[in-house]
Amino acid sequence: MWQSRERTCGGLGMGAEWRLSMWGDEISLEYGKALRGYESATGKYRVFGSNGPIGWTSQPLAPGPGVILGRKGAYRGVEFSQEPFFVIDTAYYVVPKSELDMRWLYYAVKHYKLGEIDDGSPIPSTTRAAVYVQAIEIPPLPEQRAIAHILSSLDDKIELNRKMNETLESMARALFKSWFMDFEPVRAKAEGRDTGLRREIADLFPDSFEDTEMGEVPKGWSISRVEDALELAYGKALKASERVDGSVPVYGSGGITGFHNTALVNEPSVIVGRKGTVGSLYWVDDPFYPIDTVFYVKPKAPLTFCFYLLQTVGLENMNTDAAVPGLNRNNAYRLLFAWPPGEIQQGFDMIAKSLRKKIRSNTDQSRILTAQRDTLLPKLLSGEVRITQEEGFIHQGC
Q: pTM of the entire structure?
C-alpha cells in the first residue's frame, strides 16, 4: 500500500514524486542470533548488539551493506555496516522489500527514530509490529542516493577524524611507554644504539641504570608516588534539576552527562572516574563542570605527563569493593613510578602537546561537521530541502 505525492520544485531535475508508504511494506526487520565468544574473537566480521559494535566473528550473518537496529534495552542504536556483519539477538538487521539505497535507509531509520518506538513492556524494546505500521515518505532512488552521498560524506570525514585521533592518542601513549616505562632511550644509549631522538632530547637521558625498590630505573631518576605528580580534587554535586541551559559540559565518570551555564574548572584538566566507571579518564581542554562522581587533576607536573601516567597505573582495577564501585584517592596517591628529571618531562610535554593540538583540531572540525549533518538530515529526509541533478546543489523551500 502506498501513495504518490507530487512535490513541485521549479527546476528540479531529479523528479519530484515521493511515495507515501508504510515501513512494513518497505522493509523486514530480521532477528539477530545468539553468539558466544564474540568479545574475545578475532574474526574479520563485526558483531553488533543493541548499542552498536560489540565484537568480532569469523562468519557473518548478513551481507553488506546493511543497517542494524537495536531491539532491546534503554538505548537502541542504529548502525551502518558497509561489509558483511553479524547481529546478536538483542538487535535486528534490515532487509529491504523494495529498491532502496541502503545508506539512505540507514539515515531514514535514524530520522524516523525507529529505535525510540517502545511497545510499553517492562523491558524497553522495539517490536516489528510497532515499526511496520509507521508511515514513511520515500524519494526516487536517484534522490535517495544523492541524499545518502551528502550525509555520508560528512559522516565519513567525522569517522576519519576519529580514526586519526585514535592514532594520535596511540602515538602519545607509545611515546610515554617508551620513555617512562620501558626506558628505551636509556637502553639504546647503554647499548651504543641510536635513540632515534633529536640530539637535544637524547642528551637529556642517562646511559645507565641503577637498582631501586622498583627494580632498575635510569640513573639519576627517583622513585616517587602519584601524589608527587598531581592532586585528585573532588568534583561537586550538581543535580540535573539544578542545571541551567548553557554550553559548559558536565562530566560524570561515564563522560559528558549534560550541560550547564557555569564552569567549576576553567583550565585544561584530566577527569578521573571516582564512582561508577572507576578509573575512567577524560582529557578536557575547555572550561567544564565535574560532578561528585569524579576527581579532576590539579597537576604538579606537565598535564600531559599526568594524563599518560594515570593511564599506566591501573586505576580501573582499584575499586574499593563497596556496594557502589569507588576509587579511594589515597590508594591512588600511594602508587609508585619512576620520576624523570623536569627537562625530560618538558621534552615529552612538547611532543605530546603537539599531538594533542592535532587531536583538538580534528575534534573541533568533527563538532562542526556533526552540527551540519544533524541540521541537514531532517531537512533532506523530509523533503524540506531538495537536491537537483547538478551534484551538490541544494534547493530549499519545497
A: 0.84
